[in-house]
Design goal:
By secondary structure, the protein is an alpha/beta fold. 45% of the residues lie in helices and 17% in strands. The chain has nine helices and five strands, in the order αβββαααβαβαααα. It has a five-stranded mixed β-sheet with strand order 3-2-1-4-5, with helices on both faces. The protein is globular. The two termini are 33 Å apart.
Length: 218
């Protein structure tokens, strides 16, 4: 009886039911279904800046991962039309000009496409917390909540991989590990695509995820 009452058993069920009850649009209940076995979605967003409260999403890239394969034929790549335009500083980073995003999708339509693409699959990304925060801010008016899928941080997997390789004395001393994207990709022997392109960044995160799973034996 004690096992049946364990919080580790009933809490996830209770949380799921609470989120479903408060879901702003029941059309998106599918995000709470059990995910397809051994599948993930790597994603990345390009934005007008790094302020999650005021900046806007201007591009979303996502690609499905099935087992050890990156399904580049099953990808999502959309431009999003911002409400407040694009600054010259942000153009220098992602090379998306005002006229490039002028014909982009409204954010609500872009998010609907993204949610249908993701389904209930766990999310993978490099510094994914920022992308999810930007997406969730835009999703709250529509759903009353953010993306419910599990999130997997590639830089965290890489940190664990490198930490396991350190001698005991360096672990105890708290040796620093370089988590820069280019460093990680080079160390894993993976190709670098042009950065600050949403789809390219999603594909590179997917490559790193698959390689790190292989190294872990997962």
């Amino acid at each position: 009886m004690a096992a049946l009452l364990s919080p580790s058993r009933w809490w996830p069920v209770l949380k799921r039911e609470w989120l479903l009850y408060h879901l702003g649009d029941p059309v998106f209940r599918f995000m709470f279904e059990p995910p397809p076995a051994n599948e993930w979605v790597a994603l990345d967003c390009e934005t007008t800046g790094l302020n999650v409260r005021t900046d806007e999403i201007i591009a979303i890239g996502a690609v499905r991962i099935v087992g050890q394969r990156i399904m580049t034929s099953e990808r999502l790549e959309v431009l999003v039309r911002p409400e407040r335009g694009v600054s010259a500083e942000s153009v220098r980073i992602h090379r998306l000009r005002e006229r490039d995003v002028a014909e982009g999708l409204p954010i609500d339509e872009a998010l609907k496409r993204l949610m249908h693409f993701i389904g209930s699959r766990p999310l993978v990304g490099y510094y994914l917390e920022f992308d999810v925060a930007m997406l969730n801010r835009a999703l709250f008016p529509m759903l009353g909540q953010g993306l419910p899928q599990p999130k997997i941080e590639v830089s965290g997997l890489y940190y664990d991989h490198k930490f396991r390789q350190l001698p005991a004395h360096q672990r105890q001393a708290g040796a620093s590990i370089d988590l820069r994207f280019a460093t990680m990709m080079n160390d894993l022997g993976l190709p670098l695509r042009d950065a600050h392109d949403a789809l390219n960044d999603a594909v590179m995160a997917a490559l790193a995820f698959v390689k790190l799973r292989q190294l872990r034996g997962g």
